[in-house]
Amino acid sequence: MAELTIDRLKDILRISAGEDESEQLAGEIGETTFGELGYDSLALLETAALIKREYGVDITDDIEHLTTPQALTDFVNAKSAA
């Protein structure tokens, strides 16, 4: 299975929030919290649903603890490798 990258996560975040392009997602965002990026719990639940469909990893119960894009991608990649 393909690894979830920060760039792919940026695409998923844009899709889940209904944004075409977002300046908030420009540059290095790995350690920026989702709150600082402007993503609320609803957008993150949609992100979790898209990740489950694409990567087969259910992060719905863990999403509140995955506060940065890097934490989320590391978690998904570890779960999909197991």
UniProtKB/TrEMBL annotation:
Keywords: Phosphopantetheine, Phosphoprotein. The keyword Nucleus does not apply. InterPro entries: ACP-like_sf, PP-bd_ACP, Ppantetheine_attach_site. This is Acyl carrier protein. It comes from the Bacteria. The keyword Phosphoprotein applies. Transmembrane segments: none annotated. Pfam families: PP-binding. Residues 3-82 form the Carrier domain.
